[in-house]
TrEMBL record:
Domain of life according to the entry: Bacteria
Recorded name of the encoding gene: chrA
Signal sequence region: none
Top-level taxonomy: Bacteria, Pseudomonadati, Pseudomonadota, Alphaproteobacteria, Rhodobacterales
Name of the protein described by the UniProt record: Chromate efflux transporter
Transmembrane segments: 82-104, 110-134, 146-174, 203-221, 228-251, 298-321, 342-364, 384-403
Main location: membrane
Similarity-based family: Belongs to the chromate ion transporter (CHR) (TC 2.A.51) family.
Length: 420
């Protein structure tokens, strides 16, 4: 491990990471490992893996939080802010531009044909995420039951996503095996009282920073912006399992409860977010922009998008800066590990539910909500959409063509089909 880098070196390396971080969290974490461990030697392998394990215990985008934690470890709070912001800002700027283009040109017939291909690719993307996660979380076999139960519970609307995640965490915490006595004796002691006081100050500072715009829009009496701020703040607390897991909750709330967007717009948002660098959870910013535009035009779209961005990522800095001094203690707690395992199994069920939801709304033109979940009108079957979904699955999952190329190919094929 080399000496701590200068701020200019930190800016240069994380700026490059932020511009090149395409392909979702797995690709982004691999990129950071190569840059930080292999090329710069700023972290040792053990430190990097420990930081990654810590970030996976937290709600929010683990790749962005890993960047923030690394910056904090190398250069303190300012270093963490530099690393975290550089990881997010390039993608956030592109999302703003894409949202503007979508609003301006999204209703043109040929563009709508292209977006049918994007939606088909999104179905394949979610299926791929499910297949990749399954081998990691379905052991022991009991976790299969948690995954199936989570899928059914969400599909039928028995419980909302936050309650499901809370229940899974409690179940995992309670059923986890306690550590052996020897492990408990050898475990890392809790940090000193002075550090705990400093942690409290950090949490209060970032908590106030997080709440400030929420209180402001509430005080101004702006009901829509208050709803945006409160909803995405709540989302920031329950986003265990990554963007695909939280999408199921967001689709239900944004499409069904608030009626800010349609299911088709949600799928377009995810498809466009897949093409930008940075965390996939930036899809929330796209949703904020579109919801704001529908409510009050361009000005409100910009404000709503920025407010969504704030309420999504400021909590990430809070989790990292407040929790970082306790990394060793948290990683050695077997009950927290047990809670995370059951949450991960439940997240697989959540992603399965999302894939079913998306597939039905792409392949069928009419889907009816019932007490047992979404039921398609079989007479509204769209063979073109079904064919595009099959092409997306073949390209992405079977042929293993990179995501951005798959999106471009399915959009292009769908556009040509629309012209015929």
């Amino acid at each position: 491990m080399t000496a701590s880098p200068s701020y200019s070196d930190l800016f240069r390396v994380f700026g490059r990471i932020g511009l090149m971080s395409f392909g979702g969290p797995v690709a982004q974490i691999s990129l950071m490992h190569r840059a930080l461990v292999e090329e710069q030697a700023w972290l040792e392998e053990k430190q990097f893996l420990g930081a990654l394990s810590f970030c996976m215990l937290l709600p929010g985008p683990e790749a962005m939080q890993l960047a923030t934690f690394t910056g904090w470890k190398l250069r303190g709070t300012l270093g963490g802010m530099i690393a975290g912001l550089l990881f997010v800002l390039p993608g956030a700027i592109l999302i703003t531009l894409l949202a503007g283009l979508y609003v301006a040109f999204g209703q043109i017939p040929i563009v709508q044909s292209a977006f049918l291909g994007v939606k088909a690719a999104v179905v394949a993307v979610v299926l791929q995420a499910m297949f990749r996660l399954a081998p990691k979380v379905l052991t022991p076999p009991l976790n299969i039951s948690f995954a199936v139960a989570a899928c059914c519970i969400l599909y039928m609307g028995v419980l909302p996503f936050p309650a499901l995640i809370l229940g899974a965490g409690v179940a995992g915490y309670v059923t986890a095996r306690p550590p052996a006595v020897s492990t408990a004796v050898a475990s890392t002691p809790m940090p000193a009282h002075g550090l705990a006081r400093r942690t409290l100050k950090t949490a209060v500072f970032w908590g106030i920073l997080w709440a400030a715009p929420i209180v402001l829009v509430w005080g101004l009496g702006h009901a829509f912006l208050t709803e945006i701020a409160v909803f995405f703040s709540k989302l920031a607390v329950v986003t265990f399992g990554g963007a695909y897991a939280v999408l199921a909750y967001m689709v239900q709330a944004v499409v069904t409860d608030f009626e800010w967007l349609t299911t088709a717009q949600m799928m377009d948002a995810l498809g466009l977010a897949e093409t930008t660098p940075g965390p996939l959870i930036l899809v929330t910013q796209f949703v904020g922009h579109l919801a704001g535009y529908a409510q009050g035009g361009v000005g409100l779209a910009i404000v709503a998008g920025l407010l969504t961005l704030w309420c999504t990522f400021v909590p990430c800095f809070l989790w990292i800066f407040a929790g970082a001094p306790y990394v060793d203690t948290l990683l050695e707690n077997p009950r927290l590990s047990g809670a995370l395992k059951v949450i991960s199994a439940s997240v697989l069920g959540v992603i399965a539910n999302l894939s079913i939801w998306f597939a039905l709304h792409v392949i069928f033109q009419h889907v009816v909500s019932t007490r047992f979940g979404a039921v398609p009108d079989l007479a509204s079957f769209d063979p073109t959409a079904f064919g595009m979904v099959c092409i997306g699955v073949i390209l992405l999952i079977l042929c293993k063509i990179p995501l951005v190329k798959t999106l471009a190919l399915t959009a292009g094929i769908s556009m040509i089909a629309g012209l015929l």
